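Notes taken during the Thursday session

The instructor put the following on the board and asked us to keep it in front of us for the whole hour. The protein is Nucleoid-associated protein Sfum_2790. We were told not to look anything up and to reason only from what is written here. First, the residues (110 in total):
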Amino acid sequence: MVMSRGFNPMQQVKALQDKMARMQEELALKTVEASAGGGMVAVVVNGRQEVLSVKVDRQVVDPEDIEMLQDLIVAAVNDGLRKSQEMAAQEMGKIAGGLNIPGLKIPGLF
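Then, after some discussion, the predicted structure tokens were revealed:
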């Protein structure tokens, strides 16, 4: 097997691992916000797809219509998770774009 000059696959893999570890730490600190019901239910999700907070406006709390509240929470959380995944994909794309590893393909990053 002939390797091109200047290409050290182990060094490239180590660099990728280091960058990925740093990115995971950074994503834990970055957040997105999402809401449903015109802001009646709001959530904050970090870049690791962890829900950090849920806020529910008192006006939407109706003991006679719990299903509506549940639907709003689900909608807000799903929107927050989607936004978080998009943010994470963009950040990971920055890492992948800076590396030149022939044959390496990571779904969603290239």
